[in-house]
Amino acid sequence: MNFTLLVTVLLTGIAFVAIVVVLARLIAPRSFNAQKDEAYECGIPTRGRSWMQFRVGYYLFAILFLMFDVETMFLFPWAVVMRSLGPAGLLSVLFFLFILVLGLAYAWRKGALKWQ
Fold it and tell me: How far is 104 from 112, CA to CA, in rounded Å?
């Protein structure tokens, strides 16, 4: 019974997404011209190649920021029910924070936080 319900919900969701995508393709206005294929930045035509490489430090810094930002969001539900969890909840969140600090120390030691 539960498996049938799961399959029905999944198939219904897939059907709705497919219908919306097909309708969008059929109804959406289309216009083709050469300017749409050009790279555009601030109204100034590009010279040379439009693509340039960035240093890996930018990506690493962004990933570290996202990682700690998302992990901080895991602390909010804990803070809401903190009193009902008791000492076991406190120990588990302290362990979580300890792992976060270990990750930060590892990134710091590897030089990931240096902006060179």
Answer: 9
Neighbours of 86 (CB within 10 A): 9
User: Cβ atoms within 10 A of the Cβ of 104, count?
Assistant: 15
pTM for the full model?
A: 0.48
| Amino acid letter for position 104 | L
- Residue 71 and residue 99 in contact, taking contact as beta carbons nearer than 8 Å: no
Q: Centre a 10 Å sphere on the Cβ of residue 14 and count the other Cβ atoms it contains.
A: 10
Residue type, 112: A
Closest CA to 79 of 68, 69, 89: 89
Q: How many residues does the chain have?
A: 116
The string of pLDDT tens digits covering residues 65-105 is: 888 888 888 888 888 888 888 899 889 989 988 998 898 88
